[in-house]
Amino acid sequence: MPIDYVIDHEHRVVRARAWGVMTDEDVFGYQSAVWTQPQVRGYDELVDVTEVQHISLPSIGRIRDLANLSVLRDDPERVSKFAIVAPGDISYMIARLYKAIRGATSGNTRKIAVFHTLPEALRFLGLGS
Predict the structure, then answer these.
(1) What is the CA angle 74-55-117, rounded to 5?
(2) Are 58 and 100 in contact (CB under 8 A)?
(3) Which terminus has fewer CB within 10 Å in the chain: N or C?
(4) Facing residues of 112 across strands?
């Protein structure tokens, strides 16, 4: 799976990095591997797709499925932040589409933002640069 992650318990954030060809299997696998862990419920999230060369998602329907699944794993008691770093035109567009779909999904408790650079995303998460 070309997505790795680190759970930073001190700052209550999951930092993920994707590279190569990213598929829906990778994204759904990451979602299951990380966000089913009870200790990360309500944590902020940083996903960096700077090193992704191609995104192979079969349809907008799968993006909607991912948004729905993600919302089910949100902590309804805490608003958390989700920063996506997507410097490429296609990755940025797909990230913005995901943001829009997830933001409109009933039960969403995440403030989502998409950035072109990592320092912008870190500032949004309150982690400096």
Answers:
(1) 70
(2) no
(3) C
(4) 82
% of the chain exceeding 70 in pLDDT: 98
Q: What is the H or E stretch that residue 65 is in?
A: helix 60-72
* Total domains, the chain: 1
Within-domain flag for 129: no
Structural domain span for residue 114: 3-124
Q: What single-letter amino acid sits at 75?
A: D
Note whether 62 and 24 are within 8 A (CB).
yes
Count of Cβ atoms closer than 10 Å to residue 59 Cβ: 9
Q: Does the residue 48 lie in any domain?
A: yes
pLDDT in tens, 43-96: 999 999 999 999 887 678 889 999 999 999 999 999 999 999 999 999 999 999
The tokens of 47 are what? 């996903």
